[in-house]
Design goal:
Elements lengths: L2 H8 L8 E5 L3 H7 L4 H22 L3 E8 L7 H21 L5 E6 L7 H14 L5 E9 L1 H17 L10 H5 L12 E4 L18 E4 L9 H13 L8
Parallel strand pairs: 1-2, 1-5, 2-4, 3-4, 5-6
Helix pairs in contact: 1-8, 2-3, 3-4, 4-5
The structure holds farnesyl diphosphate.
Length: about 240
């Protein structure tokens, strides 16, 4: 039996994580090791994003959030930022064909006002086009920062309190969750970070309070379906107690 099939038999497909977060890291290093420009790593990473998220849908994962571009990534050289925005643009253009017949809802989460008008229009059009889809919700975190997301929620609440629309004592964790970009979605059960780095880098700061992390040394462009199954299998072996005994 191949390694892939062995992993497939080990995974309990009746108890999959509902929501998987992926920090798609290591594109630059993957490219550099091959003597390629960093943009080639991102292009390969974007292909990998399609392959792995499609696979997530195929095996029955309901929510996937990928970290495609952080608020900090704006500080990278313009050429690299432009290359990443182009990849996003290409994805949005092709998504109509590639997602045809698939039950996939696409959402883009992050600081939208930082994006170009043309990108924004394409994002809004694709979100509208897929809004009624149900099986897999795919959140693309673009110009996303987890702390920024919490700051935005705090501002909204402060504004409401100032206007007498809300009593500060009534603010609960649910109130906060309802103000996150992921309102109405379950928190990520499993967060995957390849490339050997072991930190969350401002990804889903509020939502990841009880997430299980899975780290691997493989660079994102080299990540395989098998790696995903391995992460799920490892997750299923862990006991999640949410702080209780
Ligand atoms: C981190 O690797 C990765 C990014 C900053 C970008 C991730 C984006 C993609 C995979 C493409 C997204 C496209 C779509 C359509 C969603 P890094 O560049 O920091 O790698 P390094 O740590 O090896 O330098």
């Amino acid at each position: 039996m191949s390694f892939f099939h062995r992993k497939k038999t080990e995974v309990d497909f009746d108890h999959l994580p509902k929501h998987i977060g992926i920090i798609m890291d290591g594109n630059g290093r993957w490219a550099k090791r091959r003597g390629l420009p960093r943009s080639a790593g991102h292009a390969r990473g974007a292909e990998k994003f399609k392959e792995i998220t499609t696979f997530c849908g195929d095996i029955g994962i309901s929510y996937v959030t990928v970290y495609a571009f952080s608020t900090e990534n704006w500080n990278r050289p313009k050429a690299e930022v432009d290359a990443l925005m182009r990849l996003l643009d290409e994805y949005l253009e092709r998504a109509y064909d590639e997602l045809r017949g698939k039950d996939v809802k696409v959402r883009v989460i992050g600081e939208r006002h930082m994006l170009s008008d043309s990108l924004l229009q394409k994002i809004e059009a694709l979100e509208k086009h897929t809004a009624h889809k149900k099986e897999l919700t795919l959140n693309l975190a673009v110009s996303y920062g987890g702390r920024q997301e919490i700051v935005n929620a705090a501002k909204t609440l402060a504004e409401k309190a100032k206007n007498g629309e809300i009593n500060p004592e009534d603010i609960t964790e649910d109130t906060m969750s309802s103000l996150m970009y992921t309102a109405g979605q379950p928190d990520p059960d499993l967060i995957i970070r390849p490339s050997g780095e072991k930190r969350s880098s401002n990804f889903m700061v509020w939502q990841s309070a009880y997430s299980e992390y899975w780290f691997s040394n493989v660079m994102w462009p080299a990540f395989t379906k098998n790696d995903l199954l391995e992460a799920i299998h490892e997750y299923q072996k862990r006991q999640r107690r949410f702080g209780a005994l």
